[in-house]
Amino acid sequence: MVFSKLTSPSTLLSLLIITTSVYASPKPFRTHITNEADLLPSYSYIIVGGGTSGLVLASRLSEDPSNTVLIIEAGPLVEPVPEQLLYPGWSQLSLFNSSIMGPYRYPSFPSAPEEALNNRTSEVAAARVVGGGSAINGMVFLRGSKRDYDSWGVWDYNKLLPYFKKSETFIPPSPEQERQGITWDKTNHGFNGPIQVSFPNGTYPAAGRYLEAIESLGPKRSVDTSTNAVGTFWMPSSLDAGRQERSYAYNGYLQPLMDKRKNLHLLSQRTVTKILSGKKTGSTVPITGVEFAASEAGKKYTVKAKKGVILAAGALHTPQILQLSGIGNPKLLEPLGIKTVIDLPGVGENLQDHPYVSVPHSTTYPTNETSGGSLFDPTFFATAYDLYLRTRTGPFTAGLGNTGAFLSLESITNTTTLNSLLSSIPAGSFLDPSTPVSVKKGWEDQLKKTIENYKRADSAAYEFLPGLVALQHPLSRGTVRLRSPPNPFSRPVVNYRTLSHPLDALILAQGVLFQQKIFKSPVLAYANPVDNSAFAAIDEADIGAILEVMKAQVTASLAHPCGTAGMRAREEGGVVDEKLEVYGAKGLWVVDASVVPLVPGQHIQPTVYAVAERAADVIRGRKV
């Protein structure tokens, strides 16, 4: 810069200020933005929901630098990640104490009264944190059987298998774990994915005895759940093997990219209130962006999407957002004052979950064969917690559990009972009376497939854990609908309609009886098991009495809701096509558990990862 002799001190100062501002360091890029002013005017893709599937999509779609991607998540980004999310023992405790994960989930609320459960309500829970359900679940990492996915009718197991592999880094059991009986098959695993899958350092011989007791009654051990998802097995977890900490969507897919990909933004603690659409062209409505706000009383903002919007808000909130946007059943929307944008009756229908019933038994194992107590015991908790902090071993390394069984109906009951059950299907749909005709048609197809699978050995009807039995393929169907008046900041009305189909109760009753047989096995006699369940005093032949007790004992949800925006034909109640694009819309996809047409006979976490991985390729136009 050249100065003349006439340059005054004040002018020089002004020039210095200008020069300094021109050459000042630019504001550093941040993936996580907290102010609407930092948003771009538009993005290639807007992802609604920063949970399990949303973060997979964000990671994969932003791999292409020509794409700009925005994630909008209702919950917070918690940094540094607290131990309540990372340390597995906390997830074990939180299954029975919702306050532990309270800051990271929506406030619980009751479902609609369930007629088949004596009009009881059930707790409806959902994650509300970046990472979604993968941040607060029990960490069980199991796929369903090939038969489960082949029954979907659109995508099948072979189409999903590469994406199951793509999502995981499987860590084989250690030599010590192999000596305890943990086996594995490398054929169907992935070894370079974002989610680490391994076995906890807190396995004990007593856990293996439960499996042996089951096997003494006929079922067989599965070498690996990825190869055969029906049988008894040691259960892997979404667990970093080295650190013995939770591996989940945030620290697997998004955290490694934070502040590195300048085409990726995360806006947290914002609720999407509506999907925005343009003028209908022919039979298609173009999707233009989203509307969102920080609170019910807060200012509403809009942001545009050049290529489209992807709903990844979960099986409870995705249908809510669709309905708020005028996409759903006109008979439900218009009485609420919502103009129908796309007539799509399947939105919010076909809700499925895994209902379960507790069948607890107390045992007295030798101290060298057990963890020695319960994390609910303050003294034992302190010991286990200290051991974990010092050595990353012991009971605190396990989430929901180490061992379990997923068994077919035919493997736990005799042929006469099986045939009697399956021939006793009463006439009638047993759906909600307001169920649209197309949804009923789709359910009738699912009914046939489910009954056929009940007759097979390669599809699980039950999950058995030492304290509970869960039904894997219920015939009952629930709904997710808007409250009146409609409000994006109110939770939807969830009606699980658990056991509304009579066959579900009859099949679950057989599971209760089998759980009691397991603890009566000579294999467990040395542990002196005592039946502490509500079924203890009931004669096993008195099915009627068992059914009555079940009405007061069954819990509607194992936190595996799915099916409410199903991937199936539109004339069968489907909401999305095989590319996961919403029927009648251009540039609107659903990618979460909502699209799963039939709930798999396993915990749903790995399925959601695989669906999201495949969806990312589908949306990008890659060959799949």
TrEMBL record:
Span of the signal peptide: 1-24
Cofactor or coenzyme needed: FAD
InterPro entries per UniProt: FAD/NAD-bd_sf, GMC_OxRdtase, GMC_OxRdtase_N, GMC_OxRtase_C
Top-level division of the source organism's lineage: Eukaryota
One of the GO biological process terms: secondary metabolite biosynthetic process
Glucose-methanol-choline oxidoreductase N-terminal domain span: 127-150, 314-328
GO molecular function, one term: flavin adenine dinucleotide binding
Keyword RNA-binding: no
Record-annotated active site: 560 (proton donor), 603 (proton acceptor)
Chain positions recorded as FAD binding sites: 52-53, 129, 137-140, 272
Keywords noted in UniProt: FAD, Flavoprotein, Signal
Family recorded in the similarity comment: Belongs to the GMC oxidoreductase family.
Full protein name: Alcohol oxidase
